Amino acid sequence: MLTITQALFDQIVAHARQDHPDEACGVVAGPVGKGRPERFIPMLNAARSPTFYEFDSQDLLKLYREMDDRDEEPVIIYHSHTATEAYPSRTDISYANEPGAHYVLVSTADADAAGPFQFRSYRIVEGEVTEEEVKVVEAY
Amino acid sequence: MAIEVRIPTILRTYTGGEKAVEGGGATLAELLADLETRHAGIQARIVDGGELRRFVNVYLNDEDVRFLDGINTKLTDGDNVTILPAVAGGMA
């Protein structure tokens, strides 16, 4: 299960909406081993694409250095799908390299039959996707 | 010749959990071949068909080696190499 504060939830949603129609991406870092998302870090989508995202390579290095210095890890890795449901694509699965992270997908497609704005969370380990419950809280 | 190599979480299964290991080589290709002798399997996760995998980033002293000479980038003693898988995906 992913437990996340309403404030962080809202920040992810706002970022996804702001970058629409391109995919938005980012990380919520937290203390190593605690599984608690704390620090919201929106990233630039270097691909600037409606169908693909990739962290800029220099930004990626800076991010990991910073997390290392602060004893943090990427608790959440999030990105948006702009025209499809919030479910990991084959691309998402093949590039998922953080088995300890919650992969959050939001869909800014809204409309269609998909219903309201989707915010879903998954574990992706060795190509296997497991959806998990998202619990939104006021504070930890 | 010692070069420090920082290993991402996903590849620490090859280094017994170590975050950083040492290796040697005059080029990045040689360094990766050297790592392979002690950490069997790691090279194939980084290299494919003699080139760096598209979604693995390798940095020499903070510079992405794609902007240097890629896998043929020359190394010298005391260099730091960092390996980081790209964070990428999307509906495509």
UniProtKB/TrEMBL annotation, chain A:
It catalyses: [CysO sulfur-carrier protein]-Gly-NH-CH2-C(O)-S-L-Cys + H2O = [CysO sulfur-carrier protein]-C-terminal Gly-Gly + L-cysteine + H(+). The keyword Ligase does not apply. It holds the Pfam family Prok-JAB. Residues 2-128 form the MPN domain. InterPro entries: JAB_dom_prok, JAMM/MPN+_dom, MPN, VirAsm_ModProt. SMART domains: JAB_MPN. Keywords: Amino-acid biosynthesis, Cysteine biosynthesis, Hydrolase, Metal-binding, Metalloprotease, Protease, Zinc. Belongs to the peptidase M67A family. Protease that hydrolyzes the covalent CysO-cysteine adduct synthesized by CysM to release L-cysteine and regenerate CysO. This is CysO-cysteine peptidase.
Automatic annotation (TrEMBL), chain B:
The lineage of its organism: Bacteria, Bacillati, Actinomycetota, Actinomycetes, Kitasatosporales. Pfam families: ThiS. It comes from Streptomyces albiflavescens. InterPro entries: Beta-grasp_dom_sf, Mopterin_synth/thiamin_S_b, Sulfur_Carrier/Prot_Modifier, ThiS/MoaD-like. This is Molybdopterin synthase sulfur carrier subunit.
